Amino acid sequence: MGRKSDRKKSKKTKGGFREGNDSGTLSKRILQFLDAHYGEEFNAKQIIKRLEIRDAIQKGGVEPALFRLVEAGKISKTPRNYFSSNQDPDFITGTVDYVNPRFAFVIPDDPAATIGDILVKEADLKQALDGDKVRVMVFPLKGKTGRTEGRVLEILERNRDEFVGRVEISPRFAFVVPDFKKMHKDIFVHRGDLMGAEHNEKVIVKLTEWREDDKNPTGKVIRVLGKAGLHEVEIHSIMAEFGLPFEYPKEADEEANAIPEKISSNEIKARKDFRDVLTFTIDPVDAKDFDDAISYRELENGNLEIGVHIADVTHYVKQKTALEKEAYNRATSVYLVDRTIPMLPERLSNGLCSLRPNEDKLTFACVFEMDRNARVVNHWIGRTIIHSNRRYAYEEAQECIDTQSGDYFQELTLLNELAKKIRKQRFDKGAVNFETVEVKFKLDEKGTPLGLFVKERKDIHKLIEEFMLLANKYVAEFIFRKNQGADTFVYRTHDSPDLDRLETFSGFAKRFGHQMDVTNVQKISAALNKLMDEIQGKPEQNVLEQLAIRSMAKAKYTTEPKGHFGLAFQHYTHFTSPIRRYPDMMVHRLLEHYLEGGKSQDAEPWEQKCVHSSEREKRAADAERASIKYKQVEYMSLAEQKDYEGIVSGVTEWGVFVEITETKCEGMIRVQDMDDDYYEFDERNMRLIGTRSKKMITLGDKVVVRVVNTDIDRRTIDLEFADNDRKKSRPRAFN
């Protein structure tokens, strides 16, 4: 029989400590607690309570441990015997991403400042809202989540102080419930500040006060949009939500209207005259702003001269004018489901600058001399004047090619053949073929969706695309080679993809039955193109295309002369759409400057404009998506009640996203409504697993669903699995 130990066994207490633990362990826990609460002061009783120490011996050891830590210089003590950490925290500035009501992340301005984003709990946000620029104190130790945590010390710049939302009125007060999903606070409004808004109407509310102890901000209604659910009201709500303008400033409009239409003889002499050369535009059937035209003629040596002529917007929009200021502020036209919010006033966008047929128009051009194999033999860049012979809608031009009849069908056919060769050359050099699905709606006069269809990309769309890409490429390369990249210019760049994200994406593709090798860096483009070809016309096409795009870096505007991975171009810019994109106006201005022999411009102001333009581009894309989502939700609310086939397009801990194959609309099945089992989220493999049945719901699964609810305010579609009618005898797993 073994000898009994003389050492007493330690006994576990309710507080989670063991009697007999030495004072060093207690001191360590106290120090960790104070370091994790940097900037706060606690007395011994508060520390005992926060550490949940219940054992009398442990309680008695707290104060001596605190004084030992003070003597060691690890913590500080006030005259009132309050203690705090001596750790030196980091201070960074960043942008708030307010992901949910419980916490936000702060994205550092300098990515090297911390490892990853900083988690900030709601109580430590100091009333910062999504998109705000803030100064953050980073805690020395990571929190329980294993993430770097911090506290907002100061709001440096509010991202926005106006929100759109729905009014809820009670007898004594009112609140505005914001539409914006990342605004997690309702806004209190005094009854006298409602501006006549009635219960359940949509309004724009401006924040006026947010006292430190108040849970909710206070605001006043500055615009009543109308009854929630009406088409015009909801579109105006989306415009207000994303800060899109409702009208053009009076001063800018007056400037536009004062510009003379007549083109002077001196202006014509200063340009290459293409008015006698066959020229035409090809645009959507409902377009009014024609900013690009193609000229065509055969040369005596048997080669072809193809001119890409772009509206000369900067001839009309001068710097330091109200027009210029507003164009910069908007930075892009925005295309919602039922309207365009133009960058330029209608007088310019649809009039003076629009390359309408049978009118003399001023243009900036990139003119190519090509052989019959689409090889560029020579090119010229400069200002031109044109006279368009024909305005085509895409459908008309495609019909000319398909039927081999109609105006200029032979020229269109030859251009199409050239475009196909240019496209092949591009893909042979490593360009990636992303053919994203574009959803369009047929709307009645009230804006109600009557039908939904996927826009088809035909040869004629690709023809225009290839010649615009070619012009953009040659303009960028022309400036870069002029002075070996030393001249400041505006480039459109696209970084190579992150291999870890691509590896994750290839795993997703594999679940759909598609193999994709991402181990060879040199062949990533080829692997992506092979996959894109395989999924054409298949139910998973849209899901995989969207996932592929998300795994890529984001294209942006910058003065740094980097390449464009997706297009496989060493240098690329945006030159071809100055009516609707401010960066193209920047390019035209710099191009003119350098063509006239000007020296390199200071890069910093142009880089700031690039950053602004990239931000405005994202805002426009978000607004466009929101308007499409709104119409998708409305369409599904009116659609036939039936079972729909779909594909699992996303899996989270709170639900499963499903894209309905027939309508391309995405909805969610909430975990709390899945009562056939208790499901746990496997984040690494992006799947839910039933704890009892081991049933797995994985990205890419083909499922059958039905619509159970639509919410236009939140722009959400709630779904359930179609086999959910079976009654379960077992109680629900979630409440």
TrEMBL record:
- Catalyzed chemical reaction(s): Exonucleolytic cleavage in the 3'- to 5'-direction to yield nucleoside 5'-phosphates
The superkingdom of the source organism is Bacteria
Region annotated Disordered sits at 1-21
Extract the InterPro entries matched here: CSD, CSD2, NA-bd_OB-fold, RNase_B_OB_dom, RNase_II/R, RNase_II/R_CS, RNase_II/RNase_R, RNase_R
- What region holds the S1 motif domain? 641-722
Where it mainly occurs, coarsely classed, is cytoplasm
Q: Does the keyword Metal-binding apply?
A: no
Q: Which UniProt keywords apply?
A: Cytoplasm, Exonuclease, Hydrolase, Nuclease, RNA-binding
Might you give the EC number(s) for this enzyme? 3.1.13.1
Query: Pfam families per the record?
Result: CSD2, OB_RNB, RNB, S1
Q: Where in the cell is it found?
A: Cytoplasm
Per its UniProt record, what SMART domains does this chain match?
Answer: CSP, RNB, S1
Q: Which CDD domains match?
A: S1_RNase_R
Q: Where is the composition biased (Basic residues)?
A: 1-15
| Protein family membership | Belongs to the RNR ribonuclease family. RNase R subfamily.
**Chain's role:** 3'-5' exoribonuclease that releases 5'-nucleoside monophosphates and is involved in maturation of structured RNAs.
Q: What is this protein called?
A: Ribonuclease R
